[in-house]
Amino acid sequence: MTIMSLALVLASLLALSRAPAVSGQVEQENRYLCTAVPLGKDPSCPLQPASVSSGTSQEEELRNTVMQLRETILQQKETIVNQLGTIKELTYKLSRCESASSDDSGSWRNSKDTMDDVPRDPNETIDGLGKTMQSLKDRLQNLEQQQMRANLSGASFPNELRDLLQRRLGDLESQLLKKVNELEEEKSQLYNETAAHRQRTENTLNSLMNRISDLEKGNTGFRSPEDFKLSLPLRTNYLFGRVKKSLPEMYAFTVCMWLKSSASPGIGTPFSYGVPGQANEIVLIEWGNNPMELLINDKVAQLPLSLSDGRWHHICITWTTRDGLWEAYQDGQKLGSGENLAPWHPIKPDGVLILGQEQDMVGGRFDATQAFVGELSHFNIWDRVLRPIDISNIANCSSYMPGNVVAWADSDVEVFGGASKWPLELCEDRLFDN
Protein backbone atom coordinates (compact mmCIF):
# COMPACT_ATOMS: atom_id res chain seq x y z
CA MET A 1 0.00 0.00 0.00
CA THR A 2 1.43 3.37 -0.99
CA ILE A 3 1.39 6.53 1.05
CA MET A 4 -1.20 8.15 -1.28
CA SER A 5 -3.63 5.22 -0.88
CA LEU A 6 -3.27 5.30 2.85
CA ALA A 7 -4.00 9.02 2.90
CA LEU A 8 -7.23 8.59 0.85
CA VAL A 9 -8.51 5.83 3.13
CA LEU A 10 -7.76 7.96 6.14
CA ALA A 11 -9.65 10.94 4.68
CA SER A 12 -12.73 8.80 3.93
CA LEU A 13 -12.77 7.35 7.39
CA LEU A 14 -12.48 10.78 8.94
CA ALA A 15 -15.45 12.01 6.85
CA LEU A 16 -17.56 9.10 7.95
CA SER A 17 -16.73 9.68 11.55
CA ARG A 18 -17.72 13.33 11.64
CA ALA A 19 -21.21 12.55 13.00
CA PRO A 20 -21.25 13.58 16.67
CA ALA A 21 -21.48 10.73 19.17
CA VAL A 22 -21.49 11.98 22.72
CA SER A 23 -22.15 9.64 25.60
CA GLY A 24 -25.56 10.33 27.21
CA GLN A 25 -26.91 12.35 24.31
CA VAL A 26 -27.25 9.69 21.61
CA GLU A 27 -31.03 9.30 22.10
CA GLN A 28 -31.80 13.02 22.09
CA GLU A 29 -29.75 14.15 19.05
CA ASN A 30 -30.81 13.70 15.43
CA ARG A 31 -28.73 11.58 13.08
CA TYR A 32 -28.38 12.23 9.37
CA LEU A 33 -27.54 9.21 7.30
CA CYS A 34 -26.69 9.06 3.65
CA THR A 35 -28.70 6.30 1.99
CA ALA A 36 -28.12 4.92 -1.47
CA VAL A 37 -31.23 5.17 -3.73
CA PRO A 38 -31.56 2.56 -6.51
CA LEU A 39 -32.19 3.70 -10.04
CA GLY A 40 -35.85 4.12 -10.90
CA LYS A 41 -36.93 4.72 -7.34
CA ASP A 42 -38.58 7.88 -6.17
CA PRO A 43 -36.13 9.85 -4.02
CA SER A 44 -39.00 11.17 -1.93
CA CYS A 45 -40.15 7.69 -1.07
CA PRO A 46 -39.24 6.91 2.49
CA LEU A 47 -36.83 4.02 2.78
CA GLN A 48 -36.22 1.77 5.71
CA PRO A 49 -33.33 3.33 7.68
CA ALA A 50 -30.21 1.27 8.10
CA SER A 51 -29.60 -0.37 11.37
CA VAL A 52 -27.35 1.65 13.61
CA SER A 53 -27.37 -0.65 16.51
CA SER A 54 -23.71 -1.49 15.96
CA GLY A 55 -22.54 2.07 15.14
CA THR A 56 -20.48 2.47 18.30
CA SER A 57 -18.45 -0.69 17.77
CA GLN A 58 -17.83 0.19 14.12
CA GLU A 59 -16.57 3.61 15.05
CA GLU A 60 -14.15 2.11 17.58
CA GLU A 61 -12.84 -0.34 15.03
CA LEU A 62 -12.35 2.43 12.50
CA ARG A 63 -10.44 4.54 15.02
CA ASN A 64 -8.08 1.62 15.78
CA THR A 65 -7.50 1.04 12.10
CA VAL A 66 -6.75 4.72 11.57
CA MET A 67 -4.25 4.73 14.45
CA GLN A 68 -2.51 1.63 13.14
CA LEU A 69 -2.28 3.07 9.66
CA ARG A 70 -1.00 6.38 11.03
CA GLU A 71 1.69 4.57 13.08
CA THR A 72 2.67 2.46 10.07
CA ILE A 73 2.98 5.57 7.90
CA LEU A 74 5.16 7.30 10.48
CA GLN A 75 7.41 4.25 10.78
CA GLN A 76 7.70 3.96 7.03
CA LYS A 77 8.50 7.66 6.75
CA GLU A 78 11.20 7.46 9.46
CA THR A 79 12.69 4.36 7.87
CA ILE A 80 12.80 5.96 4.43
CA VAL A 81 14.39 9.14 5.80
CA ASN A 82 17.08 7.10 7.62
CA GLN A 83 17.71 5.03 4.53
CA LEU A 84 18.01 8.10 2.31
CA GLY A 85 20.49 9.64 4.77
CA THR A 86 22.50 6.44 4.89
CA ILE A 87 22.58 6.15 1.10
CA LYS A 88 23.66 9.77 0.80
CA GLU A 89 26.44 9.33 3.34
CA LEU A 90 27.67 6.11 1.75
CA THR A 91 27.61 7.64 -1.71
CA TYR A 92 29.60 10.65 -0.47
CA LYS A 93 32.22 8.52 1.27
CA LEU A 94 32.53 6.16 -1.67
CA SER A 95 33.00 9.06 -4.09
CA ARG A 96 35.77 10.40 -1.87
CA CYS A 97 37.40 6.96 -1.72
CA GLU A 98 37.22 6.68 -5.51
CA SER A 99 38.75 10.14 -5.94
CA ALA A 100 41.57 9.11 -3.59
CA SER A 101 42.26 5.87 -5.44
CA SER A 102 42.35 7.61 -8.86
CA ASP A 103 45.02 10.12 -7.83
CA ASP A 104 47.78 10.53 -10.45
CA SER A 105 50.57 9.91 -7.97
CA GLY A 106 49.07 6.64 -6.81
CA SER A 107 50.54 7.20 -3.37
CA TRP A 108 49.00 8.21 -0.11
CA ARG A 109 51.85 10.59 0.59
CA ASN A 110 50.87 13.12 -2.10
CA SER A 111 47.10 12.79 -1.69
CA LYS A 112 45.97 16.20 -0.45
CA ASP A 113 42.56 16.11 -2.18
CA THR A 114 41.42 12.73 -0.82
CA MET A 115 39.27 12.08 2.25
CA ASP A 116 40.14 14.24 5.21
CA ASP A 117 39.79 11.31 7.56
CA VAL A 118 42.48 9.26 5.76
CA PRO A 119 45.71 9.69 7.76
CA ARG A 120 49.11 10.06 6.20
CA ASP A 121 50.65 7.06 7.90
CA PRO A 122 49.97 3.72 6.11
CA ASN A 123 48.99 1.93 9.32
CA GLU A 124 46.56 4.73 10.22
CA THR A 125 45.17 4.57 6.67
CA ILE A 126 44.37 0.88 7.07
CA ASP A 127 42.85 1.46 10.50
CA GLY A 128 40.68 4.32 9.19
CA LEU A 129 39.39 2.30 6.25
CA GLY A 130 38.73 -0.65 8.57
CA LYS A 131 36.70 1.52 10.93
CA THR A 132 34.69 2.93 8.02
CA MET A 133 33.93 -0.55 6.74
CA GLN A 134 32.89 -1.71 10.23
CA SER A 135 30.57 1.28 10.52
CA LEU A 136 28.98 0.39 7.21
CA LYS A 137 28.54 -3.21 8.33
CA ASP A 138 26.81 -2.00 11.48
CA ARG A 139 24.49 0.17 9.42
CA LEU A 140 23.68 -2.74 7.12
CA GLN A 141 22.94 -4.97 10.11
CA ASN A 142 20.65 -2.27 11.52
CA LEU A 143 18.80 -2.04 8.23
CA GLU A 144 18.37 -5.83 8.14
CA GLN A 145 16.94 -5.72 11.64
CA GLN A 146 14.53 -3.00 10.55
CA GLN A 147 13.50 -5.20 7.63
CA MET A 148 12.78 -8.07 9.98
CA ARG A 149 10.61 -5.84 12.16
CA ALA A 150 8.82 -4.54 9.09
CA ASN A 151 8.15 -8.09 7.88
CA LEU A 152 6.70 -9.01 11.29
CA SER A 153 4.41 -5.98 11.23
CA GLY A 154 3.29 -6.75 7.69
CA ALA A 155 4.91 -3.62 6.21
CA SER A 156 7.04 -3.71 3.09
CA PHE A 157 10.77 -2.92 3.08
CA PRO A 158 12.66 -1.93 -0.06
CA ASN A 159 15.08 -4.78 -0.95
CA GLU A 160 16.75 -2.53 -3.52
CA LEU A 161 18.26 -0.43 -0.72
CA ARG A 162 19.76 -3.45 0.99
CA ASP A 163 21.23 -4.70 -2.29
CA LEU A 164 22.68 -1.27 -2.98
CA LEU A 165 24.29 -1.12 0.44
CA GLN A 166 25.75 -4.59 0.02
CA ARG A 167 27.22 -3.64 -3.35
CA ARG A 168 28.67 -0.45 -1.88
CA LEU A 169 30.12 -2.37 1.03
CA GLY A 170 31.61 -4.98 -1.30
CA ASP A 171 33.25 -2.24 -3.39
CA LEU A 172 34.70 -0.63 -0.26
CA GLU A 173 36.06 -3.97 0.94
CA SER A 174 37.73 -4.51 -2.44
CA GLN A 175 39.31 -1.06 -2.30
CA LEU A 176 40.49 -1.68 1.25
CA LEU A 177 42.14 -4.98 0.29
CA LYS A 178 43.75 -3.36 -2.74
CA LYS A 179 45.08 -0.52 -0.58
CA VAL A 180 46.45 -2.97 1.99
CA ASN A 181 48.23 -4.96 -0.73
CA GLU A 182 49.73 -1.79 -2.22
CA LEU A 183 50.97 -0.65 1.19
CA GLU A 184 52.47 -4.06 1.93
CA GLU A 185 54.23 -4.07 -1.44
CA GLU A 186 55.51 -0.54 -0.88
CA LYS A 187 56.69 -1.47 2.61
CA SER A 188 58.55 -4.50 1.26
CA GLN A 189 60.14 -2.45 -1.52
CA LEU A 190 61.18 0.26 0.94
CA TYR A 191 62.71 -2.36 3.23
CA ASN A 192 64.68 -3.87 0.35
CA GLU A 193 65.93 -0.44 -0.75
CA THR A 194 66.92 0.42 2.83
CA ALA A 195 68.77 -2.88 3.24
CA ALA A 196 70.61 -2.36 -0.05
CA HIS A 197 71.53 1.21 0.88
CA ARG A 198 72.73 0.03 4.29
CA GLN A 199 74.85 -2.65 2.66
CA ARG A 200 76.38 -0.16 0.21
CA THR A 201 77.14 2.23 3.09
CA GLU A 202 78.77 -0.52 5.13
CA ASN A 203 80.85 -1.64 2.15
CA THR A 204 82.00 1.94 1.54
CA LEU A 205 82.89 2.42 5.21
CA ASN A 206 84.75 -0.89 5.30
CA SER A 207 86.68 0.06 2.18
CA LEU A 208 87.51 3.46 3.68
CA MET A 209 88.59 1.91 6.97
CA ASN A 210 90.79 -0.57 5.14
CA ARG A 211 92.32 2.26 3.14
CA ILE A 212 93.00 4.27 6.30
CA SER A 213 94.48 1.19 7.94
CA ASP A 214 96.73 0.67 4.94
CA LEU A 215 97.87 4.28 5.08
CA GLU A 216 98.57 4.07 8.81
CA LYS A 217 100.29 0.69 8.69
CA GLY A 218 102.00 1.28 5.38
CA ASN A 219 101.92 -0.69 2.18
CA THR A 220 102.84 -4.34 2.48
CA GLY A 221 104.31 -6.69 -0.01
CA PHE A 222 107.66 -4.91 -0.44
CA ARG A 223 110.33 -6.98 -2.11
CA SER A 224 112.34 -6.81 1.10
CA PRO A 225 111.53 -5.25 4.52
CA GLU A 226 113.87 -2.28 3.93
CA ASP A 227 112.88 -1.47 0.31
CA PHE A 228 110.33 1.21 1.09
CA LYS A 229 110.17 4.94 1.61
CA LEU A 230 108.18 7.18 3.94
CA SER A 231 106.22 9.90 2.12
CA LEU A 232 105.34 13.17 3.91
CA PRO A 233 103.87 15.37 1.14
CA LEU A 234 102.39 18.22 3.19
CA ARG A 235 103.71 20.65 5.77
CA THR A 236 101.28 19.98 8.60
CA ASN A 237 101.44 19.09 12.28
CA TYR A 238 99.75 15.72 11.90
CA LEU A 239 101.70 13.82 9.18
CA PHE A 240 104.54 11.81 10.70
CA GLY A 241 106.10 8.42 11.17
CA ARG A 242 107.05 6.78 14.44
CA VAL A 243 109.77 4.22 15.07
CA LYS A 244 108.48 1.53 17.40
CA LYS A 245 111.87 0.89 18.94
CA SER A 246 113.43 3.25 21.45
CA LEU A 247 117.12 3.98 22.06
CA PRO A 248 119.23 2.58 24.85
CA GLU A 249 121.68 4.69 26.80
CA MET A 250 124.42 5.58 24.34
CA TYR A 251 127.80 7.32 24.57
CA ALA A 252 128.21 7.53 20.81
CA PHE A 253 126.03 7.11 17.75
CA THR A 254 125.88 7.24 13.97
CA VAL A 255 122.62 8.21 12.22
CA CYS A 256 122.33 7.64 8.45
CA MET A 257 119.36 8.11 6.07
CA TRP A 258 118.34 8.92 2.54
CA LEU A 259 116.43 12.19 2.03
CA LYS A 260 114.63 13.84 -0.87
CA SER A 261 113.02 17.25 -0.44
CA SER A 262 112.47 20.45 -2.38
CA ALA A 263 110.70 22.33 0.40
CA SER A 264 111.53 25.98 0.93
CA PRO A 265 112.49 27.66 3.13
CA GLY A 266 114.13 24.77 4.98
CA ILE A 267 113.35 21.08 4.60
CA GLY A 268 112.03 20.86 8.19
CA THR A 269 112.81 18.12 10.73
CA PRO A 270 113.82 14.72 9.30
CA PHE A 271 113.83 13.16 12.80
CA SER A 272 113.68 14.00 16.49
CA TYR A 273 114.26 11.97 19.66
CA GLY A 274 112.71 13.11 22.94
CA VAL A 275 112.96 11.72 26.46
CA PRO A 276 111.11 12.67 29.65
CA GLY A 277 112.47 16.02 30.81
CA GLN A 278 114.20 16.75 27.47
CA ALA A 279 112.19 16.90 24.23
CA ASN A 280 115.33 17.86 22.24
CA GLU A 281 117.58 14.96 23.19
CA ILE A 282 118.57 14.44 19.51
CA VAL A 283 117.14 16.62 16.71
CA LEU A 284 118.10 17.17 13.08
CA ILE A 285 116.36 20.29 11.73
CA GLU A 286 116.56 22.89 8.97
CA TRP A 287 114.07 25.60 9.91
CA GLY A 288 113.34 28.71 7.89
CA ASN A 289 116.45 30.33 6.45
CA ASN A 290 118.73 28.77 9.08
CA PRO A 291 121.28 26.13 8.07
CA MET A 292 120.91 22.48 8.99
CA GLU A 293 121.35 22.06 12.76
CA LEU A 294 122.08 19.11 15.06
CA LEU A 295 120.69 19.40 18.61
CA ILE A 296 121.88 17.13 21.41
CA ASN A 297 120.48 17.78 24.88
CA ASP A 298 119.28 21.13 23.48
CA LYS A 299 122.84 22.10 22.48
CA VAL A 300 123.26 23.19 18.83
CA ALA A 301 125.83 22.62 16.08
CA GLN A 302 125.38 23.94 12.53
CA LEU A 303 126.01 21.42 9.76
CA PRO A 304 127.24 22.33 6.23
CA LEU A 305 124.62 20.25 4.41
CA SER A 306 122.48 21.25 1.39
CA LEU A 307 119.45 19.03 0.72
CA SER A 308 116.73 21.18 -0.87
CA ASP A 309 117.40 20.51 -4.56
CA GLY A 310 114.66 17.87 -4.95
CA ARG A 311 117.08 14.93 -5.37
CA TRP A 312 117.93 11.93 -3.25
CA HIS A 313 120.85 12.51 -0.88
CA HIS A 314 122.51 10.21 1.61
CA ILE A 315 123.53 11.87 4.88
CA CYS A 316 125.28 10.49 7.98
CA ILE A 317 125.98 12.21 11.30
CA THR A 318 128.34 10.82 13.94
CA TRP A 319 128.76 11.95 17.53
CA THR A 320 130.61 10.82 20.62
CA THR A 321 130.26 12.02 24.18
CA ARG A 322 134.05 12.30 24.47
CA ASP A 323 134.66 16.02 23.92
CA GLY A 324 131.34 16.20 22.02
CA LEU A 325 132.97 15.44 18.66
CA TRP A 326 130.69 15.34 15.61
CA GLU A 327 131.03 14.78 11.84
CA ALA A 328 128.61 15.39 8.95
CA TYR A 329 128.61 13.39 5.67
CA GLN A 330 126.63 14.00 2.48
CA ASP A 331 126.60 11.44 -0.36
CA GLY A 332 129.61 9.63 1.19
CA GLN A 333 131.74 12.77 1.59
CA LYS A 334 132.56 14.39 4.94
CA LEU A 335 131.55 18.05 4.67
CA GLY A 336 132.12 19.22 8.23
CA SER A 337 133.13 18.32 11.80
CA GLY A 338 133.30 19.96 15.21
CA GLU A 339 133.52 19.42 18.93
CA ASN A 340 132.07 20.51 22.26
CA LEU A 341 128.54 19.48 21.34
CA ALA A 342 127.04 18.34 24.65
CA PRO A 343 130.35 16.78 25.79
CA TRP A 344 130.23 13.96 28.36
CA HIS A 345 126.46 13.78 28.09
CA PRO A 346 125.15 10.23 27.56
CA ILE A 347 122.10 9.84 25.34
CA LYS A 348 119.17 8.94 27.64
CA PRO A 349 117.13 5.78 26.99
CA ASP A 350 113.41 5.01 26.68
CA GLY A 351 112.44 8.02 24.59
CA VAL A 352 110.24 8.52 21.51
CA LEU A 353 111.71 8.58 18.00
CA ILE A 354 109.61 10.59 15.50
CA LEU A 355 110.22 10.90 11.75
CA GLY A 356 109.12 14.15 10.09
CA GLN A 357 108.24 16.29 13.13
CA GLU A 358 110.02 18.21 15.92
CA GLN A 359 108.74 17.42 19.42
CA ASP A 360 107.95 20.22 21.85
CA MET A 361 106.86 17.56 24.31
CA VAL A 362 107.70 13.89 24.27
CA GLY A 363 105.71 12.28 21.44
CA GLY A 364 103.70 15.35 20.43
CA ARG A 365 102.96 19.08 20.28
CA PHE A 366 104.28 19.38 16.74
CA ASP A 367 104.78 22.67 14.87
CA ALA A 368 103.73 22.66 11.21
CA THR A 369 106.43 25.19 10.29
CA GLN A 370 109.10 22.72 11.47
CA ALA A 371 107.63 19.65 9.71
CA PHE A 372 109.67 17.74 7.13
CA VAL A 373 108.26 17.80 3.59
CA GLY A 374 109.51 15.13 1.21
CA GLU A 375 110.56 11.47 1.25
CA LEU A 376 112.77 9.56 3.65
CA SER A 377 114.23 6.05 3.59
CA HIS A 378 116.81 3.71 5.13
CA PHE A 379 116.87 5.45 8.52
CA ASN A 380 119.42 3.50 10.63
CA ILE A 381 121.15 4.15 13.98
CA TRP A 382 124.27 2.53 15.39
CA ASP A 383 125.60 2.93 18.92
CA ARG A 384 129.12 3.66 17.63
CA VAL A 385 130.90 5.90 15.16
CA LEU A 386 131.08 4.29 11.74
CA ARG A 387 134.26 4.42 9.72
CA PRO A 388 134.35 6.79 6.74
CA ILE A 389 134.78 3.83 4.36
CA ASP A 390 131.62 2.22 5.70
CA ILE A 391 129.69 5.43 5.22
CA SER A 392 131.03 5.80 1.67
CA ASN A 393 130.12 2.23 0.74
CA ILE A 394 126.53 2.75 1.98
CA ALA A 395 126.20 6.02 0.07
CA ASN A 396 127.56 4.45 -3.14
CA CYS A 397 125.18 1.47 -2.85
CA SER A 398 128.14 -0.91 -2.75
CA SER A 399 127.05 -2.36 0.59
CA TYR A 400 124.13 -2.21 2.98
CA MET A 401 124.59 -2.14 6.76
CA PRO A 402 121.42 -2.10 8.91
CA GLY A 403 121.70 -0.25 12.18
CA ASN A 404 122.36 -2.34 15.28
CA VAL A 405 120.13 -0.08 17.44
CA VAL A 406 117.46 0.95 14.92
CA ALA A 407 117.22 -0.83 11.56
CA TRP A 408 115.00 0.39 8.72
CA ALA A 409 112.20 -2.18 8.51
CA ASP A 410 108.57 -2.02 7.48
CA SER A 411 107.34 -3.67 10.68
CA ASP A 412 109.18 -1.13 12.90
CA VAL A 413 107.76 2.07 11.35
CA GLU A 414 104.22 3.34 11.92
CA VAL A 415 102.62 6.13 9.86
CA PHE A 416 99.96 8.62 10.99
CA GLY A 417 97.81 11.46 9.67
CA GLY A 418 98.05 10.56 5.97
CA ALA A 419 101.76 9.75 5.82
CA SER A 420 102.33 6.66 3.69
CA LYS A 421 104.87 4.01 2.78
CA TRP A 422 105.72 3.12 -0.81
CA PRO A 423 108.03 0.66 -2.54
CA LEU A 424 111.46 2.02 -3.35
CA GLU A 425 114.46 0.84 -5.33
CA LEU A 426 116.73 3.36 -3.70
CA CYS A 427 119.94 3.08 -5.65
CA GLU A 428 118.11 2.84 -8.98
CA ASP A 429 116.07 5.95 -8.11
CA ARG A 430 119.24 7.81 -7.08
CA LEU A 431 120.95 6.95 -10.37
CA PHE A 432 117.86 8.07 -12.24
CA ASP A 433 117.84 11.38 -10.39
CA ASN A 434 121.53 11.94 -11.17
Write the topology of this structure.
Blueprint: H1 3-16, H2 55-101, H3 122-153, H4 159-217, E1 228-232, E2 240-243, E3 252-260, E4 268-275, E5 278-286, E6 292-296, E7 299-303, E8 312-320, E9 325-330, E10 333-338, E11 352-355, E12 374-382, H5 388-395, E13 413-416, E14 420-423, H6 426-433
Antiparallel strand pairs: 1-12, 1-14, 2-11, 2-13, 3-8, 3-12, 4-5, 4-11, 5-6, 6-7, 8-9, 9-10
Question: Would you tell me the overall average pLDDT?
Answer: 77
C-alpha Rg (nearest Å): 56 Å
Number of strands: 14
Helix content: 25-40%
| Biggest sheet strand line-up | 10-9-8-3-12-1-14
Spans of 5+ residues with little confidence (pLDDT < 50)? 17-29, 49-53, 104-119
Distance between the termini: 123 Å
Largest beta-sheet details? 7 strands, antiparallel
Strand content: 15-25%
* Helix count, DSSP H or I runs of 4 or more residues: 6
Described by its quaternary structure, the protein is: single chain
Structural class designation: alpha+beta
**Overall morphology:** rod-shaped
* SSE sequence, one letter per element: HHHHEEEEEEEEEEEEHEEH
Describe this structure in words.
The chain is an alpha+beta fold. It has 6 helices and 14 strands. It has helices spanning 3-16, 55-101, 122-153, 159-217, 388-395, 426-433, and strands spanning 228-232, 240-243, 252-260, 268-275, 278-286, 292-296, 299-303, 312-320, 325-330, 333-338, 352-355, 374-382, 413-416, 420-423. The strands form 2 sheets. Strands 10-9-8-3-12-1-14 form a 7-stranded antiparallel beta sheet. A 7-stranded antiparallel beta sheet has the order 7-6-5-4-11-2-13. A hairpin with a 2-residue loop joins strand 6 (292-296) and strand 7. Helix 2 (55-101) packs antiparallel against helix 3 (122-153). The longest helix has 59 residues, at 159-217. The termini are far apart.
